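Please predict the structure of the following assembly.
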Amino acid sequence: MEPDDVDFEDKEILNWDINDMKLPQNVKKTNWFQEWPDSYAKYIYSSEDRSAQRHLSSWAMRNTNNHNSRILKKSCLGVVVCSRDCSAEEGRKIYLRPAICDKARQKQQRKHCPNCDGPLKLIPCRGHGGFPVTNFWRHDGPFIFFQSKGEHDHPKPETKVEAEARRARKKVHSETSSASLKLKGSSETKALPGETKSRESLPLTWSFQEGIQLPGSYSGPLLSNAPQQRSLNGCLSFSKSYVFGGTTDLPDAPSSLGPTKLYEKCKLSNSRIYSSADLLQPSVSGIYPDYEDLQAWNKNVALGRNPLNDKCCPSYTFPLVSWPYDFSPSLNSSESCFQQIPVEPPAVKTSCHQLWPNPGADLYEEKVHVDFNSYIPSTSYHSPQEDPFLLTYGPHPHHQYSLPGKSSKWDLDEEMRYMGLDRCNSEMLLNLCPLR
DNA sequence: ACATGCGGGCAGC
DNA sequence: GCTGCCCGCATGT
């Protein structure tokens, strides 16, 4: 929304601060949950938004006592990297999620790089005047207000889902190892259980800047047992990317543009960069600082972020062309895939709340309850580039009217029928998971 | 085991 | 007073 379009009430919404005595209550549109809030962002979530209720972030944020029980403050822990700066196969960098618990974090730093066995080191966040970026949460009426201060000066760590999945795999691997050791009656491993250099111990994240050459041979153990299936939720956040990349009703889709060119194209079109998050959420109009420029864009790329997935122009809202199910916090891998298929949304300045009043929170609830345990994809690998389904897939704009009730778990087959897809195609979607 | 939230306490500005 | 940070404790997953 352009400044001219911001009326008085919008300005009021624009100017709030988390420390204000009174926060705006005339909020017309709440934001969809932001997994990677950065810079001096402010969001207003519905109090029904479960992720907001849990004060989640894909950054590793720890609770900080600010002696104010009304405002929850969290500070960023940074990212754990390999001190040798090693690269795994396909150029993946080691960006581990710092443990939130202090003791667990100390323990974590005594461990070794899952890739090269070198020592790990914690890169602290210094993005807020030399101090960690801080996030503030405040519940007020029907809203949850979020404010971020500082700009992360380090790569994105694993998401919580990824870190949990990795721990689960380590646990499985550890149990498998101990079982086989019992059988062999010998101990030969120097590394700690689960810390071998096997693929299953590798972090799930890799650097954005080093490309995303996905291992075609990597069917991996990810889908081979129950704990790992949980990461399907994370895998399916691919959908978020393909919402963007596959929305066929969006004109002028530059599927082959790189990030910088896409940025330039966005600049030319309306001095804004589009993000999938924008597509996914009806935003509070015009409450975000317009801080993005090409330098920031390049910085984001250099920091391993996908600028397309950041809030580059969050004040921009689109008709709801999104697949409303995010399933989980996004994965860096999905972001990387998103980079592969960047598609520019239409330069349509519009607001959707009149048609779909604040669907965000409820929809998000749906997506966190999806149960895919019964859907075990095959381990065959479908390259996104090769998969016409992924390139042409377009969710139905009116789909959000057809949601099942909150209480029901989502029936994927039914969902796919809504999407005009059959089981075969739904499995193709799930086959994206081995990409990781 | 770990994440998360709360609150006491201390130190620096 | 504000802020950052450490710590212990409780609770939930």
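Residues 54-55, 62-63, 65, 67, 69, 72, 99-101, 103-104, 160, 164, 167 of chain A lie near DNA strand B (CB under 10 Å from a C1'). Chain A has a mean pLDDT of 54.
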